[in-house]
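pipeline stage [seq->struct] | target=Pyrrolo-quinoline quinone repeat domain-containing protein | organism=Gemmata massiliana | residues=445
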Amino acid sequence: MPVQTVSSHKVEGRKVEGERRKRSRLYDLRPCDLRLLLVLALILAPGLTLRAADWPVWRGPKGDGIVTDVAIPTKWSATENVVWKVDVPGTGHSSPVVSNGRVFLTSFESSTTDRLLLCFDRKDGNLLWKQSVLSAAAEKMHKNNTPASSTPASDGTHVWVTFLDAGKVAVACYSFAGKQVWLKSFDGFDSVHGFCGTPVLFGDLVIVNGDSDGDAFVTALDKTTGATKWKINRPNRVRSFSVPLFVEVRGKTQLVLAGSKSVAAFEPTTGKQLWIADSTTDKFVATVAFTEGLVFATGTSPNNTLVALDPTGTGNVTKSHTRWSDTKVASYVPSPLAFGKHLFVLSDSGIATLLEAKTGKKLWSERLGSRLHHASPLLINDLIYCLADDGTTYILKPDEEYELVTKNALGEECHATPAVSDGQLFIRSATSLWCIGSKARAGRP
């Protein structure tokens, strides 16, 4: 059978005509059709996740408690601007984190001794699943601590949690479907005040502070496998509960941690210590803050301290890089806020103080109307939000003179630092999880 051939110029002619028809069909699409195609392309793009602004770790994406989100309300109550409110199984002081449409909390169920990871739908508060990470009787602890005080951390596909398991620090990874991926434990933890070792994320690492009176350590684990990437021993062996903070110094990232009678910085990828400053404070709970090129640390046990450190040194920088210190302004549990030229410190007894960050000069100091504070303050849209233990949030202006903008009462006991995500506040009380925001935005992811 003879083979039919087609001349090259005819083939090219057909190709050109085909391209013309394709372009013609594309030009015939209406603008709304083009927008739909663009959205579909984005959704189908590999590795791309579309989601609202997340609050994936304690105190926000940078761990500094600072966020700009113009839709966050300044006024609410137990009935006003409440998108939803749901019961929380068990008890705990861990803060909520918001990641890829989910809200995660940890909790402790005393009747079963289960240490729980809870997953809620951020749209309506529906409890999607709860998993028992482990079961262990409640450890000895401070009256203001709980067996579920460590806040989870998430990267949008997985979530990491820490609990104490009879003297062992347990670190676990879960998928968003609630399946345990891995669990790893470290022996030798000892603390009469209990445990709180909130994990933080850096690249492919999950980093945990295991300061205690026993075998104190800081470790970095592979997020995917749980393999130990580095682990350093803490020489002073003193219980502390501070969350590490990442700061940029001369173009390089430092992991800065208060605890073990010191403030110290490490290379996040190797655990190598960069510098250390000795402290008269033994036990730290508050996380450090950073602005104006200075690191700020505060504590009250056994001595009040507020110190400003220059993080550009090496070795022991106690004398060489301490820029100023104060023994009257201090907090134990609430972490300070550092922003622009200002440093804000909220004491556990509700004394709010604004200082010049570079000099330590006190601009004002006022007692709020509450007696106890354990939640750390947040800076939202250049306003300071201070949640008291009685469930009242005081909103302040960080100006040269003290100004209370407003205060909002929920009427329930609160110990956890709120989360902020896409126009909504997520507040954990002793019994409930609240979503505060405009109801007009309630249907958004």
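stage status: PASS
auto-comment: Residues 8-28 form the longest helix (21 residues). The chain has a mean pLDDT of 89.
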